[in-house]
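Feature request, filed as a ticket because there's no other form

It would be nice if the structure record came with a short human-readable summary line next to the tokens. Right now we just get the raw output. Example of a typical job, pasted below so the devs can see what we mean:
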Amino acid sequence: MFVGGPPGDGKQWLSWIHIADAVALIRYLLETPDLHGRFNLTSPHPVQMAEFTRQLGKVLKRPSWLPV
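Raw output as currently delivered:
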């Protein structure tokens, strides 16, 4: 059946980033020598886990109502 759902109550925030964006940013950081320090790779628009798992279920055509 492959049922999934949000962890806990689903109200946790998730700042996701697409793998292509992460790779592009890491490459930029490696190729720009005057940048120093720590960098946080994240989306400027976080979503709550309930919404993320709902959308993921839609894309995968799987139910996403069972909290984990």
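Something like this underneath would help us a lot:
The beta strands are 13-14, 47-48.
The mean pLDDT is 86.
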